[in-house]
Amino acid sequence: MAELLHVERRSLGDSDLSVDEALAVLRQPEHFCLGARVGATLVGFLSCFETYSAAGPRLELDMLGVLPEHRNRGIATALIRAAVAHAHESGAAVARAAVRTDNAASLSAFLKSGLVVADEAALLIWDRADADAAGGSSGRAPHALGRHLVRLPSRPLLSATQATLLRGGEAVASALALEVATLAYRGCWIEELAGAAAVDRASLATLLGQAALQQELHEAGALAPLQQAATHAALLAQGWQETGRHYVLSWSA
After folding, report:
1. 131, 137 in Cβ contact below 8 A?
2. Pairing with 211, which of 75, 139, 156, 188 sits 20 to 30 Å away (CA)?
3. pLDDT digits (tens, 9 = 90+) for 72-126
4. Are 50 and 30 in contact (CB under 8 A)?
């Protein structure tokens, strides 16, 4: 594990986990990590895990790193292909990755591995600093948060929270919230935001972000498709912080 973290810090620099903390993440049953060696030296890795999706188990191709001196040799592409093949054999229906739009090398590796660009989105984050700056207000009241747990019958460990924003007893927005643990953070992914009004969609995301922090998660994140400009603007207005633009890539069996 120390060797893997060494590669991560030289290639990505996103994780500050200790060896024991990283081991605890990778020992979770939904996780697996592939490595590439040259001789006895680990030169690349791909950390993956499965999540709930309506289509069935979804493989998240999460953290991909290759030492700088070993890049442009097909290592990243080989890791992605091996991970997708393993997940397919294990029953995953779909796979997904998010790649920064300015990371041409990573994008090329995913495209060569058979994934396709499904969307372009802004990654927005809600963390403690955002919560403090927003003063805990989502800017729209009165409202309540309704939640119920959904699971996959074939993978009972894979679950998500179906959430609704209620106003006067009426559901005005909905979303799916997934709690995840990665080699960089423990957080909540907010997906499938829907509702007639952008401010209600953003208010629901903010309530879920606040709930994530109350559960001692590090942050909440949402990928806001660029074509949904009103949702993007409403999230920013409520205190969410954009951290970059990403291509969302997908694969299906």
Report:
1. no
2. 156
3. 999 999 999 999 999 889 889 899 999 999 999 999 999 999 999 999 999 999 9
4. yes
The residue written with tokens 């030296």 in the block is 41
Candidates 20, 21, 18, 22; CA nearest to 45 is 22
* Among 238, 125, 132, 232, CA closest to 184: 125
- Is 238 buried (19+), middle (13-18) or exposed (0-12) by CB count in 10 A? buried
Q: Which residue has the tokens 């993007």?
A: 232
Predicted TM-score (pTM) of this structure: 0.91
Topology (CATH) of 123-245: Aminopeptidase (3.40.630)
Beta strand pairing status for 41-51 and 31-38?
antiparallel
Looking at the chain, how many residues does it have? 253
Domain limits of the chain? Answer: 2-120, 123-245
**2-120 adopts what CATH topology?**
Aminopeptidase (3.40.630)
Nearest alpha carbon to residue 151 among 61, 70, 30, 48: 30
Amino acid identity, residue 127? Answer: D
CA-CA-CA-CA dihedral for 230, 236, 237, 239, to nearest 10: 150
CA dist 45 and 62 (Å) reads 11
